[in-house]
Write a structure and sequence with these properties.
alpha+beta, seven-stranded mixed beta sheet, two-stranded antiparallel sheet, 31% helix, elongated
Length: 191
């Protein structure tokens, strides 16, 4: 038997005081005013927007003013609530499937404008998240959120390949010039 629970409606009806306080948002913002494609990076602890957005808004409202709208790409968010209550106001949440980078969060404020944040997946290792936060906060960078994620994935794959080659070497194997292990065929003697 399968039971489906619609948490969106229950969360929408909750007051901000009825929820357990969220830990502070893991956030890095681009310093200065040099325009780039990203204004920083956010590393949520889960893929639950109704739990994660209040902590993010608490950090951003002080430096960017009141955020009133947020948009995401639904690729990585299983549930997208229409509204999320945060301290002192409600944030409206929308989504764009084809128009918005799946690794980006778009924030809108009536008074101050628009910001784009790289969204680092919650399951990302702390070392990889630190690299991504640093890369996303380079002033004037022309790298998109998906480009940064792709570069990180390529770097992790290369490191794993190097580790496998080094392990092969220490276990008595030999590696080819490309770093791929080479198996030596047994000789025909003694058969």
């Amino acid at each position: 038997m399968t039971v489906t629970i619609d948490r969106t409606n229950a969360v929408d009806r909750m007051t901000p005081d009825a929820r357990a306080p969220s830990p502070p948002a893991r956030l890095a913002l681009t310093p200065g005013t040099t325009a780039g494609l990203l204004d920083g990076a956010w590393w949520p602890r889960s893929r639950d927007l109704s739990l994660e957005l209040p902590a993010l808004m608490a950090r951003l409202d002080h430096c960017w003013g009141r955020i009133t709208r947020v948009t995401v790409n639904p690729t990585f968010w299983p549930v997208i609530p229409r509204k999320v209550p945060v301290t002192g106001h409600t944030v409206h949440v929308g989504w764009f499937a084809a128009e918005q980078d799946p690794h980006k969060l778009l924030l809108l404020s009536y008074r101050a404008g628009r910001w784009d944040l790289l969204v680092i997946p919650p399951e990302t290792s702390p070392a990889a998240a630190a690299r991504l936060m640093s890369a996303a906060t380079v002033p004037g960078s022309l790298l998109t959120a998906s480009m940064l994620m792709e570069d990180e994935r390529a770097a992790v794959d290369a490191a794993e390949s190097r580790d496998r080659a080094e392990e092969w070497e220490t276990d008595g194997g030999t590696a080819s010039p490309t770093g791929s292990p080479v198996q030596i065929a047994p000789s025909g003697r003694g058969q």
